[in-house]
Amino acid sequence: MRKTSTTRNSRDKLKKKRGPRKGPFKKKECKFCVEKIPMVDYKDVSRLQKFITERGKIVSSRISGNCAKHQRKVAKAVKRARMAAFLPFVAE
Fold it and tell me: CA-based, 20 to 30 A from 5: which of 18, 38, 63, 92?
């Protein structure tokens, strides 16, 4: 007869893979709210490049830490900068 080993439940397997939790995460702050920047300008390329990836995609607010109001303005400014050829549409 074959020996059957004790089976773990799926929760134990997940704990082993993930590791211990470190506690609550720190919410990122919106750079525009902290620095009190009145508007997001599409001509400010150096600031807008922080919000696009090396592939040319717009970074989500979850990653960048922007509030919803400023994330919408960043997205619109990036699109305008692309149309004015300040920013690339895709990576080279």
Answer: 18
Range of the domain at 60: 28-92
- What is each CA distance from 4 to 1, 17, 76, 79, in whole angstroms? 9, 23, 60, 60
Angle in degrees, CA 17, 11, 8, rounded to 5: 95
Provide the mean pLDDT of the chain. 84
How many domains does the chain contain in total?
1
- Residue at 69 is within a domain: yes
Note the pLDDT tens digit of each residue in 54-88: 999 999 999 999 999 999 999 999 999 999 999 99
What is the C-alpha to C-alpha distance for residues 26 and 33, in angstroms, rounded to an integer?
17
